Every structure is written in C-alpha cells, then in structure tokens.
Backbone:
C-alpha cells in the first residue's frame, strides 16, 4: 500500500499518495483530482486500470480525508493552489491531469494558470461555470430539500441515487450500496463539504477556457442529473481542438458506473501522443499565447500581456479562432 505523504500550501496540510510503478521513470505521471464527497480513495474503481499505465498522484482536498480542516471560505483558485503544492512536494514538473466534477473545475484552472504543469487534460462531469455554462439542474435543489430531516444514512443513499443514472440504477442496483459503504468508510467532513460545495457553486472560468493549451478530452455522462450534460458541449467547443466523449446511459459518476469504459476512454486519449516539441504541440502553445495576448488586451492584465508582447497572431489561427470550432465528438469505446 502506498504511504501517505504531506504537502503544504501555506498552513494547510494536504495528504497525498504516489501510486503505480513509481520508479518506472518512462511512465508519465497522472494527477487525479476528486469531486465533492470523495477523498483520494474515491478513485478505487479505476485506480488499478490507470495505475497499470501511469504513475498516479492522488490527494485529499482540504477539509477531506487526512488533509487539514478547511476553516475559511475557499475558492476553486485556492484548491488549484493546493494541486500545485502537491505537484511541487512530489517534485513533479508536469503531469497529465484528470478531474471529475469539482475536480474538473480545479483541472481547468490548473491548465489555464499553470500551462507548463499540464501535459494532457481530461475534464469529466464538469462545467465552465459563469458566464458560458448551463446552471445546475433544479433537481439538485429539490434533492437537497427532500433530504432535510432524513436520517443521515438515508440522506446519503438519496444523494448517491441522485448522482447515478436511471439506467445504472436498473442495471447495477448494488452500486448504490457500494458507494454508500465507501463513503461511510471514508466519511466527508461536514464543514469541509460545505466550503467545497460553496467553492464549486461559485465557480466560473469567465471565458478563459480558450486559454487552455493542453490537448483536452471532455467526458460526460449522457444522463448526468447533477451537472447539465450540455456543459460538455460548451467546454469542448471553447477549448481549442478539444475532443468530446459522451457516455450513453451514464450519470454524474461515470468512473463508478462504467469503470472499464471510463478508464479505456481516458487511457486511449492520454497514451496517443503529440510528441513533446512536435508540430501539433507547438501549434497549441502558439495558439494559447495568441489567445492570452488578446485576453490581456481586453482585461488589462499586464502580466499576461507581458508574456505575449511582441508576438503577432498568425492569420490562419486568427481565422480559426474567430470562426469558432465545433468540438470533435468521438465514440465511447466500451461504454454502452
């Protein structure tokens, strides 16, 4: 079993593990960023499949698992700083990044604010937030209201059922009990859950998803009742050359509902590669610099403008950005 290590972001202690064949230096690192309600053990259904191909970095958000309690309100930006602190503590310069739900918001900010740390990016069951994203479905609020006054065990079960699709509940009714048992073995802390929920609810990338330079895959369950699935189209349409895989009949937790299909989709994407320094990778970096420059001019960001100063935007890139590109939607192998 991997030992628990500690990273620090200011006064916050962050528990993390390095898993897989850590000494296999030729295997790239994959940072896994969990969603709300799960700590680093929440990757259990796909950890073995991913660990056979990558060296894994898993950690607990502040306020969860063995990390410090979250005592003050935090933002997705704060959580992004935590992810950077984990990579720094592990002495990892760059890694593939996979984030689910709230973790997908953190992954977006990591790719936008720290492009050199992200090799390839996978965004699952997540949203760009304000102003381009679709709001959270009204069924979320209704579910919260219906849980008021319920015994904790029953309330937890209702929350899990809401996260799974109707098809999953029919095909794998035992999965509800498995996830409930998992969360009881690794219970979320109430204070941390409230602050992380607020961070996710207030998130908006403010249109900066066009700044993502890393090759990106967007994955979403077709029947997600927690995050509107149309957000996957928004993300894949705004991130340059992003790919989109919609998993039919799956809900908000595709890595639990169809772990084999989810791991297959992720591994295929991460293992196909732009060679470091290759033509495609260089074009992506150039495109990101162009967009950053224009973003800086619109927002008055001197730091971004300084990095992009003196660079002209190629006509072909300008034309493609102005037109906007439809996301490339791909089949979901093994999903169905």
Residues:
């Amino acid at each position: 079993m991997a030992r628990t290590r500690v990273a620090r972001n200011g006064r916050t202690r962050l528990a993390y593990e390095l898993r897989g064949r850590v000494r296999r230096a030729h295997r790239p690192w994959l940072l896994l960023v969990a969603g709300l309600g799960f700590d680093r053990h929440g990757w259990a259904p796909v950890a073995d499949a991913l660990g056979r191909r990558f060296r894994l970095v898993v950690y607990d958000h502040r306020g969860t698992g063995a990390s410090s309690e979250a005592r003050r309100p935090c933002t997705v930006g704060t959580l992004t700083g935590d992810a950077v602190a984990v990579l720094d503590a592990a002495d990892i310069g760059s890694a593939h990044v996979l984030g689910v739900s709230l973790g997908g918001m953190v992954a977006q900010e990591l790719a936008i604010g720290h492009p050199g740390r992200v090799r390839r990016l996978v965004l699952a069951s997540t949203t760009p937030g304000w102003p381009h994203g679709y709001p959270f479905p009204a069924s979320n609020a209704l579910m919260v209201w219906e849980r008021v006054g319920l015994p904790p065990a029953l309330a937890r079960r209702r929350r899990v059922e809401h996260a799974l699709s109707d098809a999953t509940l029919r095909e794998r009714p035992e999965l509800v009990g498995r996830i409930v048992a998992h969360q009881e073995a690794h219970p979320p802390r109430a204070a941390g859950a409230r602050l992380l929920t607020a961070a996710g609810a207030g998130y908006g990338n403010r249109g900066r998803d066009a700044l993502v330079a890393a090759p990106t895959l967007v994955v979403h369950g077709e029947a997600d009742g927690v995050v509107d699935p149309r957000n996957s189209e928004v993300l894949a349409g705004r991130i340059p050359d992003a790919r989109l895989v919609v998993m039919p009949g799956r809900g908000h937790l595709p890595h639990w509902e169809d772990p084999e299909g989810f791991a297959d989709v992720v591994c295929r994407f991460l293992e196909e590669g732009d060679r470091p320094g290759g033509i495609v990778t260089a074009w992506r970096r150039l495109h990101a610099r162009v967009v950053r420059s224009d973003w800086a001019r619109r927002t008055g960001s001197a730091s971004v403008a300084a990095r992009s100063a003196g660079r002209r935007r190629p006509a072909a890139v300008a034309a493609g950005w102005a037109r906007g590109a439809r996301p490339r939607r791909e089949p979901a192998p093994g999903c169905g």
